[in-house]
């Protein structure tokens, strides 16, 4: 009896998976729900608040309700909003909505998405909160310029993988079709660059495709560092596991990336996960041939002083004093001398970046999360907390 129930469970499960429409799948890949669904709210009935320089803006109700939602959007209106960032009434959408990435979506994917939103998403009459900008339309005009500068270049379905450096020793070059699919998913619907690519002064991402070295080179987002995806060093299976489950043999995910995994990447087909990992790993020539899992074992634990000179002294100096206006001094620095070393440990793990202002370019410290073992990090932390006259607070 038990076996029969289990067998039925399996049937139901695969039945459900097969019944998913192409549009529903694309909505997951593009993670529309991440912004358009409030915690505990009805699906796609509106959600996240974005604080902008001119006031707060809310991700709107995009269910097919005629009055509160987008029920009166034609296929053309929908395409304009998603790929060009222009709402039905003609106002430009704030770039929190990742249309510069969605601009690359193919006509077919837009068609499927439109069908899904019109026919499958339940209509909800939840009203959009009023945007807190009374002079909204006049404040929006600079976005037209923003659009003109950064969005027009992208063409539907067109992605640039850049020069794929396959390395001399590679036995196996990545398959071109797989790479192209991966580039499409990452640069287009997956909008991975929205968090992983640094942004310039006007909030535009500094690059939208693999032809620039800045694309996916790492960025701060809401107090988290979304690390560079250009030098990932792990076997493709581990990367797929991370995107499917948020953990792998050697790694784990936390923070805003967890939401990306729960709402989006966990639903990707194995083929699409394979495509994304082969594209991302192609940035790092070392990865073209899968590295054995032994490759992850790096060094046996080293003392703090040696680690400091290996990883930190180039920038912070042997005397810990850094460089004026570029690299902070670690001497008598409150982050180092704090009673609780948590911030110091997070900085070592995640790296750091100076805020970019009009007068200065931003400087970055790399992340060392996977570079040192726990024991090595402890040695390093104890070393910097007890050197150059540093005394930790009691
Ligand atoms: C990272 C957050 C984010 C994601 C992901 C996102 N959106 Fe949006 N979207 C927004 C915000 C914010 C607005 C409102 C912008 C404004 O008012 O200027 C918006 C506006 C819209 C509008 C205009 C709605 C109206 O009221 O006229 C449509 C249509 C839309 N989004 C569709 C989508 C679809 C379809 C997806 C997935 C393919 C998606 N969005 C993914 C943030 C997002
Ligand atoms: C909402 C912001 C956001 C989006 C969108 C996003 N990421 Fe992330 N991602 C992060 C943050 C923050 C981290 C660091 C957290 C961690 O590693 O635990 C991260 C970590 C990762 C890691 C782990 C890197 C490592 O060295 O361990 C991978 C792989 C990754 N992201 C891939 C992707 C891919 C692929 C996409 C697009 C499908 C994507 N991310 C979209 C914010 C984001
Ligand atoms: C490539 C240059 C570079 C390397 C290598 C580097 N750092 Fe940094 N570090 C920086 C920069 C730039 C900042 C400032 C970032 C900011 O403003 O958030 C910084 C910030 C810090 C801070 C925070 C200081 C403060 O006052 O906010 C600490 C602590 C730190 N680094 C420790 C280390 C340790 C330990 C290592 C070695 C594991 C290391 N750094 C390696 C460039 C570097």
UniProtKB/TrEMBL annotation:
* UniProt entry keywords in alphabetical sequence: Cell membrane, Heme, Iron, Membrane, Metal-binding, Repeat, Signal
What name has this protein been given in UniProt?
A: Cytochrome c
Q: State the organism of origin.
A: Buttiauxella gaviniae
Q: Kindly name one Pfam family recorded for this protein.
A: Cytochrom_C
**Coiled-coil blocks:** none
Q: Where found in the cell?
A: Cell membrane
Q: Which InterPro entries does the entry link to?
A: Cyt_c-like_dom, Cyt_c-like_dom_sf, Cytochrome_c-type_DH, Membr-bd_ADH_cyt_c
> Which residue intervals define the domain Cytochrome c in the entry?
18-121, 177-284, 299-388
Signal peptide span per the entry? 1-19
